[in-house]
UniProtKB/TrEMBL annotation:
It is a multi-pass membrane protein. InterPro entries: ABC_transp_permease (IPR001851). Its main location: membrane. It comes from Caldalkalibacillus horti. This is Ribose transport system permease protein. The lineage of its organism: Bacteria, Bacillati, Bacillota, Bacilli, Bacillales. PANTHER family: ABC TRANSPORTER PERMEASE PROTEIN YPHD-RELATED-RELATED, RIBOSE IMPORT PERMEASE PROTEIN RBSC. It holds the Pfam family BPD_transp_2. It comes from the Bacteria.
Amino acid sequence: MFQMSSLSKKESPLLNAGYSVKSFIRDNMGILIGLVVLCIVITIINPNFLTSNNLLNVLRQTSTNLYLALAMTMIIILGGIDLSVGSIMAVTGVATTSLIAFFDAPVVVAVAVGLLVGMLFGAVNGYVAATTVIPPFIITLATMNIARGTAYVITDGKPVRVMSDSFNFIGSGYLFGIVPMPVVYLVILLILCYLIMNKTKLGRYMYAVGGNAEAAKFSGINIKKIKFFAYTFSGLMAAVAGIVLASRMFSGQPTAGNAAELDAIAAVVLGGTSMTGGYGRIGGTVIGALIIGVLSNGLNLMGVSSFWQYIVKGFVILVAVYADVIKRRKAIEA
């Protein structure tokens, strides 16, 4: 039986069999209150925030970020980081649209290839992270540039426009004419990730590796396989995000996903996942992503320049990480 020496029984959601909705609300009370207050403030400033069309728009934007953030949660729990997800979004988007626009490939085939491209980049990240001592920051920084450069090479820096109704339905369609398709995918992926992290050995092993890699190794856990899966899954989620975004934009853009990793990391750390690894929950990441989505939407409604939005999000990440450090320090002292 492996030991999680750096986590207390109270801290680990997987060791607490009685974890419930009540516990979830209690553990995330701070960010839940922050989300509610943020919504109230934005509504006071601009009542259009609460319109159904705008709320659906927030869900669409949040869903794309959450595709990345769900996998990023796993990686950060392992004590790693993935800076390449935004660039993988771009290369998978242009690869998919190029197959449709230039080679008249069936949408199903093009999407499958796009997903495989994303998984390939993720697998490279995972393999190098698992078999070398190169820090994940450096590994994914390198693949970030490779993927972005590949996207520019494929398109010569130009958008690849696609006028296929079946492809455009992926990101712009509605289920039963009500629920945006990106939200449908999100619900499915949320359930999948929740099951992985809370109901499988794989999820328990991720917490063990992030909490104490040496103890996990001596317990017989194959750390290399765990890391390889996490980064490959991250590549797959980035591909999903890239294809959905390309469908919404009716084109593959080599600039797509620029700084998307920033929003994903912000959502994860805001959701309470520790940057030092070993602790975090998918539910917290969802709340963190909603905060980022509402914040971005609110700033847009208030006419704040996108340049200032980068600054605001940067401060959000800084404050969230600082709060995590203080929280962990108090936990150790206690």
